[in-house]
Design goal:
Blueprint lengths: L4 E8 L4 E5 L2 E16 L4 E15 H10 L5 E15 L2 E16 L50
Parallel strand pairs: 4-6
Antiparallel strand pairs: 1-3, 1-5, 2-3, 3-4, 5-6
Subunit structure: Homotetramer.
InterPro entries: NA-bd_OB-fold, Primosome_PriB/ssb, ssDNA-bd
Organism: Streptomyces toyocaensis
């Protein structure tokens, strides 16, 4: 597919709005991205133009973003760019730049965060394999038994 993928680094500009929809969880928020440049006349860094993007997240990403993000926090958003043109209040040519997010995270260059693995709510679709014995069609390994893998660790 010829989609425009991009990565933006900015700050959360609006509180994430979370909704349960027929197709699953969805969330949206705005991110502000301001260009910085070196002003030679003032010998200092200066702010350039600020671009605002509406970030759309779906499914587990939406749930995690709504629970994790607050206004003003530095974030990195990766996703597909969608530019829309609409007519608003009778005025044609209104444009918006949206990002259909694939990944969202805090910008660790500007602070720290603590990761907590989300609890999975999905049911396992296939039964757990029997780790106690080797299947009949596999070559003998000497003992005829395999070790059970370690139990998963839940990080909270």
């Amino acid at each position: 597919m010829n989609e425009t993928m991009l990565c933006v680094v900015g700050n959360v500009a609006t509180r994430p709005v979370y909704r349960e929809t027929a197709s699953g969880p969805a969330a949206r928020f705005r991110v502000a991205v301001t260009a910085r440049y070196w002003d030679r006349e003032k010998s200092a860094w200066a702010d350039g133009h600020t671009n605002f993007f509406t970030v759309w997240a779906n499914r587990q990403l939406a749930t995690n973003a709504a629970a994790s993000l607050s206004v003003g926090e530095p974030v990195i958003v990766q996703g597909r760019l969608k530019v829309r043109t609409e007519t608003r209040e009778g005025q044609p040519g209104w444009m918006s730049a949206d990002i259909d997010a694939v990944a969202i995270g805090h910008d660790l260059a500007r602070g720290t965060t603590a990761f907590r693995r989300a609890q999975r709510t999905e049911q396992q679709t296939s039964p757990e394999p029997n780790w106690e014995t080797v299947p009949d069609d596999s070559p003998p390994s000497g003992t005829g038994r395999t070790q059970r893998p370690p139990e998963p660790v839940t990080v909270t």
